[in-house]
């Protein structure tokens, strides 16, 4: 078995300080990790390497599986993260835990071709390259059987947008397989967002064209064990990053998301108002009830999307909902107050209304992130 083979061998290479750290973000990859370590052992013969498994406390026991291997092989290290989820964040923490001059980031599910690693390392060392990207799109690379039709289509749109909006010229900016000089990753780390899957795009766009990049082709393999974690939230998050970077990071992804949820709340409000009015409730009562419906919908959407990394559950969600009502009620005052000030001249009604709404949104955002979805 490949796992057993990997465990036998603290060879001389393991006594040297690692030249290359391979970061393996994992969530529910217990069946894949032992095979992967065996494959790395083969592919990286002659190179002083280490693997850093960054596992988000997977329920399938990936951490324990990786620890068992690490116990018999000093080249394998494990970071177990509790209370956090996110591929990008796991990659960042893994890179920051390395002391090697070069770090690679690679999926832990065997979809990435480990035999490319020595070529990536050689390319990184040969010329003055800072980042080598394993691309599924560059000539010679393919998505093989690894991506479904619909995923391949979505991935093309995502790439096109990244190129148009951010001037990122990567052929595969969504790739999760790359190697970078650690000092560069270290320098950029404070600017990266830990959410979602977009670590590479984030690295490259945060560097503002200062990274010297090379691309190498590879074939994306099909997944054999376990399942993909890329879902709609991850996709939403990716588009959020594109927008935020496009606007030069003036507004955060979170604020954009909060604003979108707020806009959906307006729709919910109007529909609810109509329904209440039709059921013969007075306007004031209908308007109040509709506000509560909209605030409740906003709360749950924000809890699912905007603050999914701080998601409130059970009793915490109930308290959160109540503080959110309180925050939004003050938000209405801020909104009306500002609008009134400007409305002193009635020809400014549109500007007054919009300024009031923005003021209310800014207040709701600031106060709810401090009160409702506090960072612990
Ligand atoms: N620690 C941690 N935390 N690891 C995670 C998490 C997480 O929340 N989510 C996913 N991973 C790990 C998986 O265990 C796997 O090793 C790797 O990240 C990739 O996740 P998959 O769920 O297998 O992604 P995919 O195969 O659908 O997506 C591939 O294509 C994307 C672009 O199309 C990956 O290569 C992505 O990196 C890439 O962005
Ligand atoms: Mn995968």
Walkthrough of the structure:
This protein has 376 residues and is an alpha/beta fold. The chain has two domains: 230 residues, Spore Coat Polysaccharide Biosynthesis Protein SpsA, Chain A; 120 residues, no CATH class. The chain has 13 helices and seven strands. Strands 3-2-1-4-6-5-7 form a seven-stranded mixed sheet. Strand 2, helix 3 and strand 3 form a beta-alpha-beta unit. It is elongated and about 80 Å long. It starts with a helix and ends in a 5-residue tail after the last helix. The N terminus is likely disordered. Guanosine-5'-diphosphate-alpha-D-mannose (GDD) binds next to strand 1, strand 2 and helix 4.
Which strand order spans the largest sheet, edge to edge or round the barrel? Answer: 3-2-1-4-6-5-7
Helix content: 40-55%
CATH A-level architecture of the largest domain: Alpha-Beta Complex
Rounded mean pLDDT score: 87
CATH level-four homologous superfamily name of the largest domain: Spore Coat Polysaccharide Biosynthesis Protein SpsA, Chain A
Oligomer class? single chain
CATH class of the largest domain: Alpha Beta
What's the CATH topology name of the largest domain?
Spore Coat Polysaccharide Biosynthesis Protein SpsA, Chain A
What structural category characterises the helix and strand content?
alpha/beta
Give the beta-strand count. Answer: 7
Characterize the overall form. Answer: elongated
What small molecules does the structure contain? guanosine-5'-diphosphate-alpha-D-mannose, manganese (II) ion
């Amino acid at each position: 078995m490949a796992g057993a083979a990997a465990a036998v061998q603290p060879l001389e290479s393991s006594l040297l300080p690692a030249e290359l750290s391979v970061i393996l973000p994992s969530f529910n990859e217990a069946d894949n990790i032992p095979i992967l370590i065996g494959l790395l052992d083969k592919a990286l013969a002659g190179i002083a390497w280490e693997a850093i498994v960054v596992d988000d406390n997977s329920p399938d026991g990936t951490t324990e599986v990786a620890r068992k291997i690490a116990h018999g092989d000093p080249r394998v290290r494990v970071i177990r993260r509790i209370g956090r989820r996110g591929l990008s964040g796991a990659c960042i923490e893994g890179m920051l835990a390395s002391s090697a001059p070069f770090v690679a980031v690679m999926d832990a599910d065997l979809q990435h071709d480990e035999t490319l690693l020595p070529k990536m390392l050689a390319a990184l060392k040969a010329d003055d390259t800072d980042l080598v990207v394993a691309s599924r799109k560059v000539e010679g690379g393919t998505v093989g059987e690894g991506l479904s039709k619909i995923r391949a289509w979505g991935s093309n749109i995502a790439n096109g947008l990244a190129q148009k909006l951010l001037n990122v010229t990567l052929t595969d900016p969504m790739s999760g397989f790359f190697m970078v000089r650690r000092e560069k990753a270290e320098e950029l780390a404070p600017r990266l967002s830990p959410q979602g899957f977009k670590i590479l795009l984030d690295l490259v766009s945060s560097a503002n064209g200062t990274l010297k990049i090379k691309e190498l082709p590879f074939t994306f393999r099909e997944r054999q064990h376990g399942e993909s974690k890329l879902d709609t939230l991850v996709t939403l998050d990716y588009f959020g990053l594109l927008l935020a970077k496009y606007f030069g990071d003036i507004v955060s992804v979170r604020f954009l998301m909060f604003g979108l949820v707020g806009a959906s709340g307006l729709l919910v409000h109007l529909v609810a108002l109509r329904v209440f009015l039709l059921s013969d409730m007075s306007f004031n009562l209908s308007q109040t009830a509709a506000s509560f419906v909209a605030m409740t919908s906003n709360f749950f959407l924000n809890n699912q999307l905007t603050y999914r990394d701080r998601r409130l559950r059970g009793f915490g969600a109930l308290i959160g909902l109540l503080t959110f009502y309180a925050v939004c009620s003050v938000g209405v005052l801020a909104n009306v107050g500002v609008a009134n000030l400007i409305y002193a001249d009635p020809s400014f009604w549109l500007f007054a209304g919009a300024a009031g709404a923005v003021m209310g949104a800014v207040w709701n955002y600031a106060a709810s992130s401090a009160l409702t979805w506090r960072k612990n």
